[in-house]
C-alpha cells in the first residue's frame, strides 16, 4: 500500500525525484512529484533481507576486484548510509569534497563515468569542449543496468564491460580521496596514483567547476 507521508522536496520542474534510504531494517524509496507547487512523498517498502542481499552482492564484486592487490581488505563499511556526498563524508569522517563521486553519462549508447571531487559540478561548456557533445546523465533507474552498480554505490571498480572512465582534475588537490565501493554504505580511501591505476581511467579531463 502506498500512502502519502509528507512534503519532502521542492523542485523547479515536474520531473520525479527519487531518493533511496538504505538500511538493513527498512529500505524506503521516496518518490516526489510536483503538482501545483505542492510536493508529496510516497513510501514503498522493500523486504529488508532482499535489500541486504543485493547490497552484499554489489560490494562483494568490488572486494573480488581488489583481491590480491595492495587494497585488499581496505574497503570500509559504515553502519549508516553513504549514498550521497554529505552522508559519505559524515560516515567516513572526512570533508565532502574528498568524496570521489561517480557521475554517470551516456554518450550515444556508451556509458561514461567521470570521477570528480565531491563538491564539484559539471561545467556544461567544458564537457562539450571535451567530448564534442552535450552532457546527458544516465536516468536514475537505468544506472545499474549501464554501469553495474546501483545509485548510491556507483564506483569505477568492477563495472560492466564497455564503461569508459575518466578522472576529473578536481581530485588532484588531495593526496587521498574516498570513492564508493559498490554499495550505499561503503568507501575505500585511495591515493591519486591508486585511482589512476585501479579505475582503468582513459585519462585526466577538466569538465567540472
Secondary-structure blueprint of this entry?
Elements: E1 17-21, E2 27-35, E3 38-46, H1 48-66, E4 76-77, H2 85-91, E5 99-107, E6 110-117, H3 124-131, H4 143-147, E7 164-168, E8 176-179, E9 186-187, E10 190-191, H5 192-198, E11 204-205
Parallel strand pairs: 5-8, 6-7, 7-11
Antiparallel strand pairs: 1-2, 2-3, 4-9, 5-6, 8-10
Give an overview in words:
22% of the residues lie in helices and 27% in strands. By secondary structure, the chain is α/β, with parallel strands linked by helices. It folds into 2 domains: 46 residues, no CATH class; 148 residues, YbaK protein. The strands form 3 sheets. The chain has a 6-stranded mixed β-sheet. The termini are far apart.
List keywords for this structure.
globular, 11 strands, alpha/beta, 22% helix, three-stranded antiparallel beta sheet, single chain, 209 residues
Amino acid at each position: 500500500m502506498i500512502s502519502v507521508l509528507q512534503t519532502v522536496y521542492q523542485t523547479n520542474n515536474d520531473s520525479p525525484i527519487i531518493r533511496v534510504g538504505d538500511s538493513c531494517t527498512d529500505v524506503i524509496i521516496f518518490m516526489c512529484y510536483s503538482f501545483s507547487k505542492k510536493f508529496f512523498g510516497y513510501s514503498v517498502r522493500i523486504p529488508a533481507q532482499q535489500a541486504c542481499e543485493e547490497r552484499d552482492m554489489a560490494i562483494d564484486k568490488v572486494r573480488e576486484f581488489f583481491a590480491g592487490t595492495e587494497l585488499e581488505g581496505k574497503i570500509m563499511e559504515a553502519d549508516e548510509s553513504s549514498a550521497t556526498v554529505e552522508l559519505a563524508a559524515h560516515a567516513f569522517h572526512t570533508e565532502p569534497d574528498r568524496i570521489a563521486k561517480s557521475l554517470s553519462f551516456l554518450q550515444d549508447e556508451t556509458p561514461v563515468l567521470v570521477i570528480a571531487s565531491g563538491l564539484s559540478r559539471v561545467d556544461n561548456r567544458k564537457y562539450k569542449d571535451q567530448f564534442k557533445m552535450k552532457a546527458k546523465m544516465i536516468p536514475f533507474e537505468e544506472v545499474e543496468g549501464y554501469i553495474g552498480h546501483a545509485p548510491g554505490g556507483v564506483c569505477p571498480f568492477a563495472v560492466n564491460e564497455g564503461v569508459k572512465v575518466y578522472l576529473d582534475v578536481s581530485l588532484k588537490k588531495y593526496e587521498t580521496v574516498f570513492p564508493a565501493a559498490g554499495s550505499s554504505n561503503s568507501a575505500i580511501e585511495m591515493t591519486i596514483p591508486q585511482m589512476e591505476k585501479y579505475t582503468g581511467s582513459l585519462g585526466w579531463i577538466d569538465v567540472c567547476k
